[in-house]
Design goal:
single chain, about 140 residues, alpha+beta, Mago nashi protein, six-stranded antiparallel beta sheet, about 35% helix, globular
Length: about 140
């Protein structure tokens, strides 16, 4: 009976989990006031090109955009990027939002938070990530 339960568990839980794609980028925005307290949202772009914004259904993105982003993430010197310290008041202090990016690299996850690092959204890999988000928003 124990073997059957283990087999059933593997068929139902473990195998589908193994088939799921890994994240390439996550963006957590937090801060501001919503009806139920602090606002927050998580956006996930998986390495298979599926984009999930909050609780919405995942949408497929352009493979060439994801490939470009993957290359840019691999080329980014995140330690150097984080040397550009954020020096102002975090927007969360006055009902604004903080953006926390996690880029998944071959060296492990790289976290970049807007209240710690001065993020240039026109610089890479941020610009390409935001372009992917804009493309999905425009294609709704």
């Amino acid at each position: 009976m124990q073997r059957f339960i283990t087999f059933l568990f593997l068929c139902i839980v473990a195998i589908p989990c193994a088939a799921m794609a890994s994240p390439l980028v996550t963006l957590e925005t937090r801060g501001g006031e919503c009806n139920m307290g602090e606002c927050s949202q998580v956006t996930v772009l998986s390495d298979d090109g599926m984009l999930t914004v909050g609780k919405a259904q995942p949408q497929k993105t352009a493979p060439e955009s994801v490939a470009r982003l993957r290359t840019l993430i691999g080329e980014t010197d995140f330690a150097a990027l984080r040397t550009h310290k954020f020096t102002g008041t975090c927007p969360m202090a006055y009902d604004g939002q903080e953006s926390i990016f996690t880029f998944y690299t071959s060296r492990g996850p790289e976290r970049v938070a807007s209240c710690e690092t001065a993020i240039d959204v026109n610089g890479e890999p941020f610009n390409t990530f935001y372009n992917i988000l804009r493309q999905k928003h425009e294609n709704k």
